[in-house]
Amino acid sequence: MSSTATCLAKCEKPERYIQQLVKHWGHKMATSYDEGDGMGLFPFDEHTNAVMTAHHDGIGITLTTADAERNEHMRGVIERHIDRFAFREAPLTYEWKDPKESEQ
Fold first, then answer.
1. Confidence (pLDDT) at 104
2. E strand intervals along 11-89
3. Is 45 left (phi over 0), alpha (psi -120 to 50) or beta?
4. In what helix (H) or strand (E) does residue 82 lie, and over which residues does it extend?
5. Which of 42, 46, 41 is nearest to 66 (CA)?
6. DSSP 69
7. What's the pLDDT tens digit per position in 25-74?
8. pLDDT tens digits for range 17-30
9. If phi over 0 gives left and psi between -120 and 50 gives alpha, with beta otherwise, what is residue 36?
10. Helix 14-25, helix 68-85: angle, nearest 10
11. Which residues in 44-83 are b (16+ Cβ under 10 Å) and which e?
12. Could you name the domain of life of the organism this protein comes from (predicted)?
């Protein structure tokens, strides 16, 4: 089973915050950033990853975890980190859609 949730974190500088997260978490994991798409990839562990994409009105986040409990926990981790880099705008509003469960 896996659990996937999506979110839009409304902010003024989504690309900048994603780049900062890529650098920050890049010390712990093999993050990547695609400047053309404004997209950051964050493989937290074997069963947990996030994709963040810059949109004109904020950061689109897709979070996939092994289960709903882990998904809820990782949402908090992501929100706290984004808010840290977006301190001038923080706390941001995170509009999470309920996780969808699927077998993998």
1. 47
2. 32-34, 39-45, 48-55, 58-65
3. beta
4. helix 68-85
5. 46
6. H
7. 999 999 999 988 899 999 999 999 999 999 999 999 999 999 999 999 99
8. 999 999 999 999 99
9. alpha
10. 110
11. beeebbbebbbeeebbbbebbbeebebbeebbeebbebbb
12. Bacteria
End-to-end Cα, the chain, rounded Å: 6
Residue 30's nearest CA partner among 49, 47, 45, 43 is 43
Q: Are strands 48-55 and 93-102 parallel, antiparallel or unpaired?
A: unpaired
Q: Which amino acid is at 98?
A: D
State the Cα–Cα distance between residues 14 and 81, nearest whole angstrom: 13
Q: Whole-model pTM?
A: 0.91
Which domains are assigned to the chain?
2-95 (3.30.310.50)
**Amino acid at position 73, single letter:** H
